[in-house]
Amino acid sequence: MTSSTPQVTRPETAWSGGGEPSGGTGTGGLRERKKQRTRDALIRSALELFTAHGYDETTIDEIAEAVDVSQRTFFRYFASKEEVVFAVHEMVEARFAEELERRPADEAPLEALRSAVMTSWDDIGGVIQSVIPLELHMRTYQMIESTPALMAAHWRRYSELEEQIARLVARREGVDVATDPRPRVAVAAFSGAIRVAGKVWGEGEDVSVESIREITEEYLSQIGPAVCGDWRGRTESR
Amino acid sequence: MTSSTPQVTRPETAWSGGGEPSGGTGTGGLRERKKQRTRDALIRSALELFTAHGYDETTIDEIAEAVDVSQRTFFRYFASKEEVVFAVHEMVEARFAEELERRPADEAPLEALRSAVMTSWDDIGGVIQSVIPLELHMRTYQMIESTPALMAAHWRRYSELEEQIARLVARREGVDVATDPRPRVAVAAFSGAIRVAGKVWGEGEDVSVESIREITEEYLSQIGPAVCGDWRGRTESR
DNA sequence: TGTCAACTGTCAGTGGCTGACATTAGCCTC
DNA sequence: GAGGCTAATGTCAGCCACTGACAGTTGACA
Fold first, then answer.
1. What angle do CA A149, A155, A158 make, to 5 degrees?
2. A30-80 belongs to which homologous superfamily?
């Protein structure tokens, strides 16, 4: 039925982190490790193929063949072709949410969001590299920004994250998302700036982590001036 | 190749408005009128079926059969299953962009955006009803908000609109989008508020046009306070 | 070592979407 | 107003993402 349209329901395999399971019910048995290896291999091969030949031009069969599993197995690990693209992003976003919860309560909402993004960028490299080379992640990011079908998925994920973050912010500030528009509006403004920064970065030449950091920082710092400032009596723009 | 993923390239039939062609090369001949009728019938039947049985649960074959054309013909009018959903939205957004260009140059950017949205809502009813009943449009809106696959498409379209609007704003203010982040950031904050308002409306009970107007108005008015205001010394929230 | 359960492969089928080619039906000219 | 031109449509065959069902394989664990 749903065939082409992205799914919300995903396979019950809900491992979001990339680290070793170590904690939960399934300890690090052979089976568990094998599964993890298959999953990582699928991610790596998929992203390698996508970034090399393009997303639309790569079929699931090719990915499965590269890892030497059946097409059916691919779909047991990922609910859709899109999902494998964002597997690493999910780790990154989880880090960001954690970081946000750790911010001191007296910080202003937007400042807390800003700090959380910046801090999470600091140590995310290691987490990413446990699954794929950081450079492949950066190339993936750029591929997403230049593939309309993936941008759509990107936004859907963003908005789910937005909702989650809005609730976090509301709790921090002691207000209710149901009656007070400000948490959602603030988060919308914030994630809008992040999205735009990602887009501008994706269009530029410099593919480095430093570059996206800088651009993100600049765009975030412009939210206040852009919304509340007086544009003609310029605040200085760059 | 691209099969399931949404297409950017669309059929060369690029009639975005719903009115009679009257102006261009093809005058209102029988052929032209027939095409317009087929297109409108496809939109109407599709939205009727989607809102009644759900988007995923409705097949293109069913839509085509309802209008008594072949499946292939459907795809000659719309590049994808998604596109037919947003056919009416495209008219609405075109109205908004027009309205924005008509705002006086001395208005602050966010105020111009706000006024343009509100004004375009005023007279859009007639335009919509030339194609489908207004009530069907409202139900469609709600269906979009509750269908993840469509939300993704919704955002892709939003962001294309965002880019266009950001350029308009930049021109109004006499700045350059390439070097000054503020137009894009302001528009991102603005459309974030719009999106959130749409979402909140979609989750509520009141399906009326007045309801979405009110919610939109309230959320837009909160952008300033949410971003620049002091949340603890409350500004009053509702 | 044998049983159980998880993981995987195979197969058949659905639905979105496309290219190629044949057919129909407005339109325009003589 | 018959005939040619061409846009619009139908038919058909096929690709690819994705799914359910069933059978085979392989770790886990008594």
1. 145
2. Homeodomain-like (1.10.10.60)
